[in-house]
Amino acid sequence: xxxxxxxxxxxxxxxxxxxxxxxxxxxxxxxxxxxxxxxxxxxxxxxxxxxxxxxxxxxxxxxxxxxxxxxxxxxxxxxxxxxxxxxxxxxxxxxxxxxxxxxxxxxxxx
Length: 110
Fold this sequence. Notes:
Oligomer: single chain
Distance between the termini: 45 Å
Order of helices and strands: HHHHHH
Helix content: over 70%
């Protein structure tokens, strides 16, 4: 059975993570990460590295699992500093009419 990941699924996960943000660090890994930004940053590096390794190895199952881990940790970062998913969607939407090469070139001009 295929599941479509979309704004609703991310939104639901974001809501759950936001609720867990202020839980006991002994009961919630999300809370633990929110209260330990250095560990959260290291987890982003770790999950990114694992994703890259699986990508290079063309390990589809590994890429799926590591992508899920990375998305989870990205959402924890968003909750940690108060970014709503809509802010990310708006940024992505603003980029859809411009090529990636042009967008990168424009970054230095701001």
